[in-house]
Write a structure and sequence with these properties.
This protein has 286 residues and is α/β, with parallel strands linked by helices. The protein contains eight helices and 13 strands.
């Protein structure tokens, strides 16, 4: 079940129109969120926290995302909480301690990096550099050793040279993302990036996108192979053409050659890989 906790964004990245369209952050009162989730966990085994900029939750009502999360993890009978996306600058010590302490937070974080080159990050008006980003990822992995970290990257941002793109590739290999969502830069009227010089051609953007998608698949497969012959818990989602599909806490996409009810927790052993899936065999139903 999806629970929207806020709307709006105040980051004003140079490529993005959302702050102008959605406006400032508007947070839902925490008591309403807790009440909504308390009701939903009677029927749903996974709660996904969503919003436009959820890490900025509470800035308008005198609280923050970590404090909200600390309340949510203590809701009775809550099985799994998934954070849809969060900025690296919003993963503070309080958040890290909650991650370490509460295993009902999914073992997966989606943390957009947008570029692996400091020059481009500055042009994008992102609020961190690579040193900060890498340090935070390292701290997260100290708390959750095998956590899946996925990300977003924009390729072909105005001014991105071949050398800059190579830096992004090296950064991705260093950080060992488990999946990279690749977006070719797209012009948006009334954004700072629209009027920047040195726009990259569509041909080069497509080429760089293909290169990065290829790297993403390589990193995904490496992470998948680490889990072969390991036991994991899967939340079933649907059944189609002889297979039940679902996801693990660390967002491995699983298919099982068996008809199982949806919204059930199943312990499986991962036997093989059929990209983009891992193939599992049922051990136990909860």
């Amino acid at each position: 079940a999806f629970v929207k906790i806020q709307d709006g964004c105040e980051n004003f990245c140079s490529y993005c129109i959302i702050p102008y369209v959605r406006g400032q952050c508007v947070s839902k009162e925490s008591d309403l969120i807790i009440s909504e989730i308390t009701n939903l966990v009677r029927f749903h085994k996974e709660i996904v926290l969503t919003g436009i900029h959820i890490g900025n939750y509470g800035i308008d009502i005198g609280t923050n995302f970590a404090k909200l999360l600390n309340k949510i993890v203590q809701i009775p009978n809550i099985n799994l909480i998934r954070i849809s996306s969060i900025e690296v600058t919003e993963i503070n010590n309080e958040m890290l301690e909650i991650l370490a302490k509460h295993k009902n937070i999914a073992n997966h974080l989606h943390i957009p990096i947008q570029s692996g080159c400091n020059k481009i990050l500055k042009l994008m008006k992102r609020k961190y550099d690579l040193k900060t980003y890498c340090k935070t990822i390292k701290e997260i992995r100290k708390k959750r050793k095998d956590i899946a970290v996925t990300t977003d990257i924009i390729v072909g941002f105005p001014g991105e040279t071949k050398k800059d793109f190579q830096k992004t590739l090296r950064t991705c290999r260093k950080l060992r993302f488990t999946k990279i969502h690749v977006f070719p830069y797209s012009k948006r009227n009334n954004t700072a990036a629209f009027d920047m010089p040195n726009h990259v051609s569509d041909i080069i953007k497509k080429k760089r996108s293909r290169t990065l998608i290829k790297l993403s698949k390589k990193l995904e497969l490496k992470y998948m192979h680490k889990h072969v012959n390991k036991k994991v818990i899967v939340l079933t989602e649907n059944y189609k053409e002889g297979y039940t599909y679902g996801h693990t806490s660390n967002y491995l996409f699983v298919k099982i050659k068996e008809k199982l009810e949806h919204n059930e927790l199943i312990e499986i052993i991962i036997e093989s890989i059929d990209y983009p899936y891992v193939i599992g065999k049922t051990i136990k139903k909860y």
